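Dear colleagues,

I hope this message finds you well. In preparation for our joint manuscript, I am sending the DNA mismatch repair protein MutS (Psychroserpens burtonensis) sequence together with its predicted structure, so that both groups work from identical material. I would be grateful if you could confirm receipt.
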Amino acid sequence: MAKKVKKVTPLMKQYNAIKVKYPDALLLFRVGDFYETFGEDAIKASKILDIILTKRSAGSESEIELAGFPHHSLNTYLPKLVKAGERVAICDQLEDPKLTKNIVKRGVTELVTPGVALNDDILHSKTNNFLAAVYFPSTSSASQSNGTVFNSVGVSFLDVSTGEYFISQGNSEYVDKLLQNFRPSEVLVSKPNRKKYNEAFGSDFHAFYLEDWVFQDDYANETLLKQFNTKSLKGFGIEDLYEGIVASGAILHYLGETQHHKLQHITSIQRLTKGEHVWMDRFTIKNLELYQSYNQNAVTLVDVIDKTISPMGGRLLKRWLALPLVSMSQINQRHDVVEYVKSDPVMLGEFQQQLKQIGDIERLISKVATVKISPREVIQLKNALEAIVPIKAFALTTKNKALQQLGEQMDSCEELRTRIKATLNEEAPVNILKGNTISSDFSSELKELRGLSASGKSYLDKMLERECERTGITSLKIASNNVYGYYIEVRHTHKDKVPEEWIRKQTLVSAERYITEELKEYETKILGAEERISLIEQQLFAELVSWIINFIQPVQKNSTLIAQLDCLTGFAQLAIENNYTRPILTEGYELDIKNGRHPVIEKQLPHGEPYIANDVYLDRVKQQIIMITGPNMSGKSAILRQTALIVLLAQMGSFVPAELATIGLTDKIFTRVGASDNISMGESTFMVEMNETASILNNISDRSLVLLDEIGRGTSTYDGISIAWAISEYLHEHPSKAKTLFATHYHELNEMSETFDRIKNFNVSVKELKNNVLFLRKLVPGGSNHSFGIHVAKMAGMPQQVIHRANKILVQLEKSHSTEELTDKVKTLNDEMQLSFFNLDDPLLEQIKEEIVNIDIDTLTPVEALMKLNEIKRMLLKKKRA
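The corresponding structure tokens are as follows:
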């Protein structure tokens, strides 16, 4: 028996033909006044958008799931789909349904993806929306010593909404740092490199996999040359970045694939060079909570320091935070501007007042290039450029060289402003079809047609007055609707007075509607004028937008300069509001902070409660490593973080929360703060901790700042102490002598200061009261030997029974781990080994015997005894397993 062929309607046949071209996208298919989704797309859309899922042709052979929404609600529903990680293909009707007897032509007009969006409802004003591409060359090798690190990887970032375009390459650790900093919404990878990408970068970002042929060097090079209309990439200083060029070319290819062909706002590409900025690995970026936190709704550093006014300034601030400077001259130039503006509140107020008028000119000019700008947005662009004129003039009158240079580089764009002002009405609408967009003075024909249209009201009033008088019907009314056009309405009580030449068009419950020859002539004349007005307005507006494209580069330049000014005036405002001071940057190695404060925590304190400030001093000669002990909740982690944040703020150009800060230029900041399981990757807290710490030890430099918090706590006490001791010793003996803050629960590590001359002990002090403890949060010299963990448990509301039992156990444990008992254990073991092993030939036992015989019991410290016992235990266990 032959299988029945499923019937497919012409509409669904058209849908299927389009859908097969976009298998990875959710297809919004325009049908009349609705965007419809079908099949799997409909099921997915109904869940994401919370709209009703129905069935088309329910019960028939062609039954299929259906979900849709009105076309005018696209800007409401599209952002929800994209934010859910969907790639959305928008399929529109390409012809007027009234003008064809066949099925309406349809086609995809835009493919919106998480990384390719121009819709204001999808974008965040102060956050870039980067599309990234990562390229692994076929010859790229990987080392396995500390995770998978690929030695040669290309990367590129593009925000299509602003035209900002970046390129770089390096090993996968460097590329990972860039990915963490730029936080792309979407990453493009070749399909064969899916495994490499996941090994190197995990699943932090939404990835989309392209065919391998897209990632070809000659194709990429040709694509970039065509975009920039040049014969070489030397002018951008990127000609040697072979892997980076391939990644950059893949991005431009993808834009073409997503129907984004108008890209004249992408005018240049900027090289990111390793070594030009402070190095922070992914762990440090997360640990310091620069722009996001492990905790939901937590306040991050950028939340506190962002005093920018313009969207461009807000986006640039995040980039400055991600890429702090290591150039002394550039840092000082920023500090000079901040100091100058801070000293003159009137000047600061003037700049801020004008910045409020500017808006997002960077994205507005991108909308010009992509021909997605509305008449009202063109007026906004003109107003923004007018606000730049006084900023330019004001900057030129200052006595600060950097501000003067900003003013000199700003372009007044007088010709552009004049043309927009002459062409558009100041109250131009959002939609060109709403009319009254073009100024009547700009077009004589438009002025004449508008005069005709405007006189129509007067003409109708006169006609109404004349017909009332002629017919004797005083309640006559002339109106119009979309179905019948213009008509005269007569109530039923007067219909016997209607002249014979009037033609009845519609009967209502209480009235009749008529038309006349005069009214039909008037309608043809007026409607023709209105249609002509609309066409002229659309044509003139299109010509204006096309002309504005010539000014993309000067407007983009203005945008960059305004963003810089906005960041620097924001730093001045931040310093005024929070009593920040100018740091002193030096070429030396010392870090000297007087009364430093944590910029985020101090803003979260209850009103009136002062922040307890602390001093920190580090150098490479006398005090390289500070070992910080102290109770839980005493503020050890806060001191570590605030030290890093003060250095970070200083080198991005901001003033800092401290009374005084002398900072030797820092090139790398490493932190290991807090625990973070990576269960999805099969890694425990301790494994994550060791990976992060290994990364630090393998990458330190002589200008590094290292912050370690509770290293080794994820394993047994003996193991933890041993590891923490060995790490501290390694940092002390390493030629780089990296400046280090090490917060620990292991009070035994205080013993290190007796052996290692550049390790100093400090503790976060507490005051013991009767049955209570007062946390003073002050860093003072000397070690601490009490953690007050049980007291913290009591504060957390632990049942009294548990607290009482814990105290008893603590007493017993402290007795059993006294110095005397530990040394007695070693002495006993020493004696036993001498009795048992003298006549044995086993090399291991001989080795253990030598270890114990050579121990000097009289000088043995508790921690050394613990480590020695643990070492011998491991040797014996290894022997037993063998």
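For the figure legend, we might mention the following. Residues 584-785 form a domain with the Rossmann fold fold (CATH 3.40.50.300). The chain is about 45% helix and 15% strand.

With kind regards,
E.M.
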